[in-house]
Amino acid sequence: EEKIFAKSIEWTLKNLQQLFDSKNTPTIIKNRVFPIVEDVCLMGHSASGHTVVSYLNETCGLIKSLVLFDPVDGYDPFGFIKQFITHPPAQLPFVIPTLILRTEFDPIPKSGIIPACAPDALSNKRFYDSLPGPKWMLNFTHYGHGDFLDDFAVKYVVSTICKTCETDCDFDMYRTNIVRAVSLFYQGITKRNKEFIQGLENPNNSGFFDKKINILSTYKYNGYDVLKTGPFCFHS
């Protein structure tokens, strides 16, 4: 799995420019969207957090920052197959600015039969505690593991296996605020923007996020000043 991912991401970054400038490129983006392959930010959701971290265990490549969205380690939520890459308090071998996005309902099972989509012992804080670099973790309360998907998927697919928001829900608003968090992180790191970084650290009073959503923030610099360094990745 990790070897296939490594080949895929290396090919993608090498050929990204021509994907946006070929006869098959959709008109809506051709000559309007220009990919940048410097200061690349790698992002993974749920179990793909295991895959992207496995890749970074071997090499940074062109990756300079990392976003883990509801990351889950191990092999399956039932815990039958134990295949872990994080073993806190042991630290991972790479140092990279990282944003972890999680939700309040990640560790809550949908029912007594199906385990939670992101059990506490396998997810989120497990990754946070294993990362030796500068890191931020935002907990979007009142929402669940798959609530960022489109409304049809949330209603007819996600809600059958994961705990989802059920009352006073605004999924469009939630999705928008997830995008804002990622943007603040990436722009804050690459442009060394103090206001954007502070927006991650005090989200509810920053003015960047919707007042209808409550976000809990945890962060730790671990001795690295991203406002001076910008994005980076290296092996310790």
UniProtKB/TrEMBL annotation:
InterPro entries: AB_hydrolase_fold, Chlorophyllase-like. Signal peptide: none annotated. Keywords: Hydrolase. It holds the Pfam family Chlorophyllase. GO terms for molecular function: carboxylesterase activity; chlorophyllase activity. Transmembrane segments: none annotated. Its EC number is 3.1.1.1, 3.1.1.14. PANTHER family: CARBOXYLESTERASE TYPE B DOMAIN-CONTAINING PROTEIN (PTHR33428:SF14), CHLOROPHYLLASE-2, CHLOROPLASTIC (PTHR33428). This is Chlorophyllase. It comes from Brachionus plicatilis (Marine rotifer).
